[in-house]
Amino acid sequence: MTVLITGSCGFIGTNLAERLYNEGFSLISLDLISPPNLYYKAHYNWDQIDDIRYDNLDCIVHLAGIAHDTKKKTDIDKYFQINYGLTKKLIDKLNTKETSIRAPRFIFISSIKACADSCNEIINEDSTCSPQSPYGQSKLLAEKYVKKYANSYILRLAMVHGPGSKGNLYSLFQYAKSGLPWPLGKINNKRSILGIENLCYILSRTIRGELPQGLYCISDDEVLSTNEIITILWHALGKTPRILNFNPRIIKLLCIAGDFLGLPINTGNLSKLSEDFIVSNEKIKKSLSIKRMPQTSKDGLYNAFYSHRYSDTK
């Protein structure tokens, strides 16, 4: 099978390519730069989108896009130009006479943020979508356009973790490395995350046509509190967990200080670290006839940040 991966040089694309190559897939890259590995038999940049023979493809995994910017430095228009605009370009290419006879599967990698930026109840495929951020809004708009293509799948991902991951989890890891005690012990929230091993497993089976078409929310089976996550990171570093139970007023002062010092404990991240955000993965498991995801959140986090422990020292 021949698979085109957009955004191939990113965190997910790099991990997915390694797995698919080892499983015998033939891979083609579509990205701004050429991927730094030998997994691909061909590479295209976005200026060469017309040169691709879409009728020769079995599947397209569309990963390319602008990720959620927690520092809010990304122009709002760029979210829509890239997250929606690139998706529209691909769908328009697929909805032609050339691909009508042999239409490849189109797997759109969306985000749970397309449904909501925060929630007080478990999110599933039937939840009402009301994203407030431009990132979530652009992903939801792209989802609606993807539905114009008959052979399509929409996968809404929880926050993805794994070797080489960055973002909020990596910031927590950097905090754990600092040796400072964790002051948010009184916060007992629950969050869903998604390990890269579980995501690649789902994608491999979807590419093979083992998943019915439709919309799916994807997460690990477990939900973890921020305290549990930071404890796992400490263990991955070989350190003893140090969690303090400060009162809320002191926490607010610490977060204000974090704004000036550039720490992950700041006013912008306080709500993310304290709120619940639970995603149901029951539909995807039922559709694939599995009882559990292949890897637990705890094992995935430990492996990811154990690898960071050494890669950061190089």
Describe the structure.
The structure is a single chain. This protein has helices at 11-22, 76-94, 97-100, 134-146, 167-178, 196-207, 226-237, 248-261, 267-274, 282-288, 297-311; strands at residues 2-6, 26-30, 40-44, 59-62, 105-111, 152-157, 159-161, 191-195, 214-218, 223-224. It has 314 residues and is α/β, with parallel strands linked by helices. The protein has a domain at 2-157: NAD(P)-binding Rossmann-like Domain (Rossmann fold, 3-Layer(aba) Sandwich). Helix 5 (167-178) links the parallel strand 7 and strand 8. Helix 2 runs parallel beside helix 4, helix 5 packs across helix 7 and helix 7 packs across helix 11 (297-311). 39% of the residues are buried.
CATH class descriptor name of the domain at 2-157: Alpha Beta
Helical content band? 40-55%
Strand content: 5-15%
CATH fold field value of the domain at 2-157: Rossmann fold
Q: Cα distance, first to last residue?
A: 37 Å
User: Looking across the biggest beta sheet, what order are the strands in?
Assistant: 3-2-1-4-5-6-9
Shape: globular
How would you spell out the order of helices and strands? EHEEEHHEHEEHEHEEHHHHH
